[in-house]
From TrEMBL:
Stated name of the protein: Ribosomal protein S18-alanine N-acetyltransferase
Signal peptide bounds: none
PANTHER family in the record: ACETYLTRANSFERASE, ACETYLTRANSFERASE YPEA
Domain N-acetyltransferase span(s) in chain numbering: 1-152
Gene3D superfamilies hit by this protein: 3.40.630.30
Organism encoding this protein: Gordonia alkaliphila
Length: 158
């Protein structure tokens, strides 16, 4: 699998994957992906089986706040079900964490409380539950954990 930059030509496929994976919780439309990719503070990655192949997964992170006090927020990680269980989510998360580490920033994310596979991946990457957001996902009303990973510099000092 190859992780590289998400491009505008990838966005229709991302919207298809999104609609399949998050049908019960207001999936992002194509226009949402276009807006996200255009924002200068966002970094989006594509997962492909080989160079120039169709996207089978995507992930995005924002770098927010002033220089020296950045924080990062994971916006999404999604992998086509046919490509799961092969380290795909790990590869995408690693790309996001490289962005955060370059900014020396802590990383925040939300994850469904019933998504044990994702929670385990995040915990293995240094994230811990910081709180619960009740009824976070709509319209299903599913709860989410807010998870945080300290800045890499903080982790290395402990």
């Amino acid at each position: 699998m190859i992780v590289d930059a998400l491009t505008p030509r990838d966005l229709p496929r991302c919207a298809e994957i999104e609609a399949e994976l998050f049908a019960g919780d207001s999936p992002w439309p194509l226009s949402g992906f276009v807006s996200e990719l255009a924002a200068s503070y966002n970094h989006y990655f594509a997962l492909r089986p080989e160079s120039d192949a169709e996207v089978v997964g995507y992930a995005g992170i924002s770098v927010l706040g002033p220089r020296g006090a950045h924080e990062c927020e994971v916006h999404t990680i999604a992998v086509d079900p046919a490509h799961r269980g092969r380290g795909s989510g790990r590869a995408l998360l690693d790309a996001l964490l490289e962005v955060a580490d370059a900014a020396s920033a802590p990383v925040f994310l939300e994850v469904r409380t019933d998504n044990a596979v994702a929670i385990s991946l995040y915990e293995r990457s240094g994230f811990a539950v910081a709180g619960v957001r009740r009824n976070y996902y709509q319209p299903s009303g599913a709860d989410a954990y807010t998870m945080v990973r300290p800045a890499a510099a903080e982790v290395n000092q402990s």
